[in-house]
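Subject: Interface between my chains keeps coming out wrong

I've been trying for a while to get a sensible model of this assembly. When I model each chain on its own everything looks fine, but I need the whole thing in one frame so I can look at the contacts. Pasting all components below, labels as-is. Any help appreciated, I'm running out of ideas.
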Amino acid sequence: MSAADNKQSSYISDKEVSFKFDGKKYVGYEGDTIASALLRNNVKLVARSFKYHRPRGIYTCGIEEPNGIVQILNEHNEPNTRATVKKIYEGIRVSSQNRWPSLNIDIGSINNLLSPMFSAGFYYKTFMGPKGFWKRIYEPVIRRTAGLGKPPKEFRSKSIHQNHNADIVIVGGGLSGLIAARKLIDTQYDVLILEQDSFLGGVLRNLNKVKKINNKKPIEWIKETEKLINASKNIKILKNSLVTSYNFTNHLIALEDKCVGKKIDKNKPELTLHKIRTTHTILANGHIERFISFRNNDLPGVMLASSFEKYIYRYGVVPETNPVIFTNNSSTGTLLKSLVDLGHKPAAYVDARNKNKIGSKLLKYLEKNNIPFYINSEVEGCDGNKKVKTISIRISRNKTIKVKSSMLCISGGLNPDIHLFTQSKGLVKWDDKLLAFKPDVPFQNTITLGSVSGNYNYEKTIEEINNKLSFLKAKNIKLNIELNGSNNFNIQELWETKHEKKSNWSKSFIDLHNDVTTKDLKQAVKEGFDRIEHLKRFTTNSMGTDQGKISSINSLGIVSKILKKKISEVGTTTYRPPYAPLSFSAIAGRNTYEFYDPERKTPIHNWHIDNKAVFEDVGQWKRPWYFKKFEMESMHLAVQRESEQTRKTAGILDGSTLGKIEIKGKDALEFMNLMYTNAFTKMKPMTSRYALMLGEDGMIKDDGIVCKFNDKHFIVTTTSGGAPKVLADMEEYLQTEWPHLQVYVNSITEQFSTFNISGPKSRDIVSKVFTDVDFSNENFPFMTFKVFDYMDTEVRVMRASFTGELGYEIYITPNKALELWKKIFHFGKAYDLVPYGTETMHLLRAEKGYVVIGQETDGTVTPLDLNFNWMIGKKKKDFIGKRSLTRSDTSRDDRKQLVGIIPLDKSEFIEEGQHVVECERLPKRITTPVEYLGHVSSSYHSPNLNHCIAMAMIKGGNKLMGSKLFVSSTYGTKNIPVEVVSPVFIDPENKRLVS
Amino acid sequence: MILINCPYCGERDQSEFSSGGEAHVARPENSDHLNDKDWGQYVFYRDNPKGIFYERWVHTHGCRKWFNAVRNTSTDEILKIYKLGENPPSKESFSNTLKTPSGEPKVGSGNFTVKK
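Reply #2:
Try treating it as a single job with all components included. I did that and got this:
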């Protein structure tokens, strides 16, 4: 009584392949899956279950597998791989999951005896207290013992995406799919066939039910069909491609495994995600067998009957020569015959049906071959240590007999695989004859063919396909299918057999993957979860990685019996994509690491690197954060040094990332007046102005400097991150609200590099660089700009400042930028010109009380809240957000307003993001909310004042000037006493700015 | 992922587009004369119907043009696409073609995948 080879199988090669499972070496054949190779080696125990750590074996022969989930050690430690799908190759290393210390002795199986604790919804009930235990004890322990494989540590996805446009997509290359394809050969349609296996044929390769097709052996007919398809110009076959989702507008996603049965090539993509658009979808994806619940129906050795047969034909392995067969329908007839034909004899045949339903033909066959059979009987349960040893068969109400065998093949009926059909939003209907849901009304252009449509009669398949595809311009074909045995299905309803409780260890499972028992279902219904969607979530039934493919209909059957309702009234849960698990790397495709998001670098980038810049990400931009003077210099020291030097002599910032938009056209002035709060009509040409852009809700969206060449030509700068949005908003208003305005907007961010030089010596430096330009205060006053030729290109220099010092912004074409930058340093050396980064920029602007959009503001701040009343063109008839500034909410005087704060004890430091409160101390235990006035938005240690300066947004801040408040700290309950002051800490008279 | 037929470029993947919300909400011209409630209605309130919805789209990663679309929000089916300034098609012209997925009711939601 052990496994045997089926030498007649022509589908597997005889080339030997060695592999390792849990460190032990085994030999299989090329073409074997991990599961078939283990069965060949009589390995029954392959996994431990999710919750109770019960021993588990291979249950199925395909994607529906709930038990045999393994980790592939040599493929980035890939977890949760289906042993029934993954093909072996020389040297593959496989390990079992969720067990410790070993698969054979698993400490976690203690959970099985504690199972009363882990019943349905246990995590909602059991681990309630004491406080803090969940996070520190329960969760870590549960995470360790319950679960799946370990995630890969180092991993780089090499999967790719591919797009397809087809007229017709055929999902499944089995009998129906191939017939449909043959009809479409050399027609006008572009056809794509998607097959999950590495070969065509599907059901024809699984069992010996079909004897001949057009007087040919099935395998020959498959080969002939494939040849015809390959010779045609309009049909393409994608093998190893599993359709995982079927979305709106006939959009399908299929995942192709490029490395089936071979080692991963590190230089080639492992997976291809096919994105397919089609006009018509033909679903010919077949059916999946379901199981029956009985006592210990999870023991290694229990297997679905059709899967058992699949192993015989596809992989040439008979997992057990003398199994017991338990069924409630006629589909197991072919397995019976296959075993007999191979010279093996089933230990027993158990059928829940009566004589009439079974049919005299089969009964005679059983008698003739001397196979013990029991009709009107059921399997009560099975026993054994980590594998099936004896099977208890209830042959009448009170009589149970025992049969010895190491395997039990069960069939509880066939479910049309409606997963994709319902994903496409088609309606399904309960069929009382098949005892299964089958497709009813499609929602999209979907046609179902063969067993997925509920047609299990192979002889009628050709008629069905000719009928359903008659709307296409395709030829009618004739096909003569000869069967082995009868075509009856004759199923009888049976979801669960009555079992005697033998011990705490006895369980009757409804979901093998998530360890849900039939008892859990009953308990959940008792607790009020009588809606199937609630029940599913409460018990986690059919929520495993197999999505209950072999068991979810059974749970409906059991629940319908408890509720005394029809299954059609109970309904199904919703089928959602993906059909089977797919790795995140497939979804990510090439969009990983450096390809995830582009990096934008300024023309000065390499110079920054050479000068020890530390970079900060601003949007997609890499900006220098600060420059290290020597290797060990800390950020704090660097920023203090840069700030001090800038105020002392001069500093320079690479501002190339600043967004720049050019606005031109007859109506440019009117457009600018509408987009920004400021008034631009009276503004003189060749001057600039700090401007604000609002949303219609009156909140500040962006700021920048507007340069006016003339009424028909403006350039605006935006924040580094805000440029795309500002441009898009301008385009939107121009197209949708003011199409009558003749205005053109264009991004010139990357057409100009920008340097901000500031400090008392900046005039001396720029005068030496641009010797032809008069930089005197009279001829180049604050907020004006000049355009001139320099180095054979056009240079624009604007006198503006974001530091409060005398400063200039220099704009030049990027390919001359580095040269100019170096030139500035050449002349700047005499003045100790220092390069500074964004952190110093922030510090310097805070000293001057300048705000940063996105730091002081957060989308709830109006210009009035920042005391920017002077920037609002009140006489203008309209601008975006104008009306909102007088809404009852925006004109409240207790809104959060911008203030400066300084600690009373100058040695203390205030942290950004801390709360501003009125109380000196926070209570040790907070029982009622502490009244909160606002938050600290910016805080720095000012090297020029030698104490902490901070900006805060606090309620009614304008009225609180000079008052004493407190700011919470990161340590303890004692708050820091502070004084509310003006946010301008340095040079409030603007003497430096206009000097 | 739906396909959108840009009136300037043709059918493209949804990922190239951005939605601009409800269409035909004109910006009030004399906002100074509006009371808070009416102005608030323009700024903050938009329809969110199940069924026919007139909305604005922009071909962000394409021609960057704005246009209007009529979409059945319960199926994501785009019933009509028309350029800015063109007259919107009447609601009645779609009532015959309007459907809901999985036998869902016309109002409200639900997962009624089984035909009763």
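Reply #3:
Confirming on my end. The first helix of chain A runs from residue 34 to 40.
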